[in-house]
Design brief:
Blueprint (H helix, E strand, L loop, with lengths): L11 E3 L5 E3 L3 H19 L7 H20 L14 H17 L7 E2 L4 H27 L3 H24 L5 E2 L7
Antiparallel strand pairs: 1-2, 3-4
Helix pairs in contact: 1-2, 1-4, 3-5, 4-5
Length: 183
């Protein structure tokens, strides 16, 4: 199988099941946004080897791939399958609670940074927030399940806490925001 098919040379791409849509179709915008989150997590994982966070990140990457497959499949297709459900959100919430129990309570706004893993997780969080906006904008038009938006929203929360956990694991303080008094 070759990676280049030339079927997209005229600005269209295929969905699961064979139908074709323009590459600027809202469904493809959603799919691309989710793919960007997944790719940003792949970069973050360059810094998570050997940490418990790596297993969780691998799990989330696989779930995001499933979310992408759901988005890429029209709901009337015989290939349509749902991806994330309540138990996925419960996993993220439980993980957030476990990480927060090990973290100092937040008393300041924090800036992305600290350890390399934390900085990359913060970047992934912002990409995830953008994906959430894209999915929210197109959900009704293309028939996305509410659970997809809920999962992406919960994931961005998880990424924030995971970034703080990454700093804790690296014995690096979160970068506190301070108002520039010099203007």
């Amino acid at each position: 199988m070759r990676i280049y098919t030339k079927t997209g040379d005229k600005g269209e791409t295929g969905l699961v099941g064979g139908s074709r849509v323009p590459k600027h179709d809202p469904r493809i915008e959603c799919l691309g946004a989710v793919d960007e989150v997944n790719a940003s997590l792949g970069v973050a994982r360059l810094h998570s080897t050997g940490l418990a966070l790596d297993d969780a990140l691998a799990k989330v990457q696989n779930w995001l791939f499933d979310v992408g497959a759901e988005i890429a499949t029209p709901t009337d297709s015989k290939y349509y399958q749902t991806s994330v459900h309540a138990e996925h959100m419960a996993y993220l919430e439980q993980s957030i609670d476990e990480m927060e129990s090990r973290l100092a309570p937040l008393k300041n706004f924090i800036l992305p940074g600290g350890s390399a893993l934390s900085a990359h997780l913060h970047l992934a969080r912002t990409v995830c927030r953008r994906a959430e906006r894209v999915l929210s904008d197109s959900a009704e038009e293309i028939g996305l399940r509410d659970e997809l938006r809920m999962f992406v929203n919960r994931l961005s929360d998880w990424l924030f806490v995971a970034a703080r956990e990454a700093n804790r694991l690296a014995s690096v303080e979160d970068v506190k925001w301070s108002r520039d008094s010099d203007g």
